[in-house]
Structures are given as structure tokens and as C-alpha cells.
Amino acid sequence: MMAPGDTRTGPDAAAPGRSDIRAGDWVDRLLPAALAPYARLARLDRPIGTWLLLFPCWWGMLLAWAGDPARGAAPDLRLAVLFALGATVMRGAGCTINDIVDRDFDGRVARTASRPIPSGAVTLRGAFAFLGLQLLLGALVLFALPTVAVWIGLASLPLVVAYPFMKRITYWPQVFLGLAFNWGALVGWAAVTGGLAAPALVLYAAGIAWTLGYDTIYAHQDKDDDVLIGVKSTALLFGSRTRAWLAGFYVATVLLLAAAGWLAGLTWPFHAGLSVGAAQLAWQVRAVRIDAPADCLAKFKSNRWFGWLVVAALLAAGLSGRG
After folding, report:
1. For residue 280, what are the domain limits?
2. What's this model's pTM, rounded to 2 decimal places?
3. Per-residue pLDDT averaged across 281-301, rounded?
4. Residue 209 lies in a domain
């Protein structure tokens, strides 16, 4: 229903061709028919959620590296690859949990009725087996990290499990998504430093504020169906006041990122790069059309650019400090 990277819109979803499964894409062309539904269950065909889960991991890792010139001339490529693999697997696991929990809701909405579980392409038993496989792969990646990072990573599991239920009981499920999706900032920092410190905690808070912004935009796609089904979100809570709330969330994101950089001792290239990222967020707030689902999806996906801009700012600061 509301896991980042899905697409579903209002009650006109019953119109032909409005399913969020894109027939004929690379999944259909390249994968055996027996595997394609599982790839879609893990949202491999829609990678934006993986990017949004991955960026905080990379940010935490790069913040720790950039703030200490003694940590080497370049970031740890092995860690970066492990985080990419882990984000792909665990985003898929999160979507599988989400679809298991929401299978009855999804079956009542035309846009999501063709998803693997409600359509019958994947049985409930098959979904649980696939979830077990993904969690096993995620554990293998996690246990390849330093010990402290492993324990911090394991501490996120209750948040991952709890999130799909939050939209049933609170208008703020985006808070719980932010807590879960940005946990990688703590893991990334700890994987480099062997512990936690103030810059990592402030970075984590910045990520939560970022998620509150982009997932509110995302939730506006679903608001008509959510009212009918009884699902809650910040999009429904804010309504016409959404733009002001987005501005607040994104201002908090930039200020907290700047504070994390300052606490880590980053030099001016970080703050210069962050200013470009701030402009990207400001564009989202100004340009988003909350009653146009396609535009909401486009603005939501544009957060990949913000993630890369912060990565570039951290790299620039780290390299300048070693020059």
C-alpha cells in the first residue's frame, strides 16, 4: 500500500492499464516466468525504494570517512558494495512483509490487485518462504560488517516488522518509515568508526525529516483509496496544508545535515554541495501538485537526485580534506 517505490492512485484505478505492474518490462523479458512474480514482490522492477534505503547507509559511512583524514585516501569500497547489496535485499524483504500484511487491502484496489500475492501469482506460503530467503541473504550481508554495526543493524528489525501496521493506527506512519529507512545512517557510521557519536545521531534525524517529506508526497497518490479503505497517512492529515509541512520537513533536513557535517568537522565543500541539494528540495516543495498522482510520483522519485547530491557533497569534503 504505502511502501516507497510502489505506485497506486485513486479510485479511478479500475481503468484499463492502470495497474502498477508494467507488463513487458525487463522482468518479463529477462526472467523465467516462475521467478518474475518474486522479482515483482521484492520490487526489483521499481528500485527507487532501494535507493532511498541505501543513501543513509552511504551517508553515514561517508560522513565518518570525510570527517577523519586518517581513515584513508578513499572510502571503503567493500563497505559501499555491502550496503548496496543489503539495501536491495532488505528493501525487498520489507516489501514482502508489507504485501503479506496488506494482501486483503491490495486485493480490493484495482491498481494493486494484480500484485503477486492478491493475484495468486505467489501463494502466501511462497511469500513467507521468499521472505525467509531474503532475510537469510540480508543476515549474510549484515554479518560481514564489523561487530558493532551488526548489533546496531539487528536492533532495527522491530521497526521493519512494525511499520506495515502503523498506517492502521496513526496518521503518522511516515515517522515509523523514517525510523526504519534511515537506520542505515547509524550502521554506516558504526561500520567505519566502531561506535556511535553525535554526528551519526544528527544525520539519522536528518534522514527521518527527509523521509517525512518525500513519503508525504508519495502518500498523496493513495489518499482517495486510503479514505475508502481506512488507511491513515500524513497526506490525509495535512491535506491542503501539505506544502507548508513539506517546507518544514525539508528545512529541518538541510539544517540537520549541515549540523551533522559541522559536528564531524567537514569543510566548506560539503556545505556548498548541500546548498545544491537544498535547492532540489525547494523545487519539490514549490512544484509538486498534490492532486496529480503522476506528478507526486515524479517528485517522490526525484529524491534520488537529492541523495546523490549529498553523497557528492560528502565526497567533495572528504577529498578536499585529504588534498
Report:
1. 11-16+31-321
2. 0.91
3. 96
4. yes
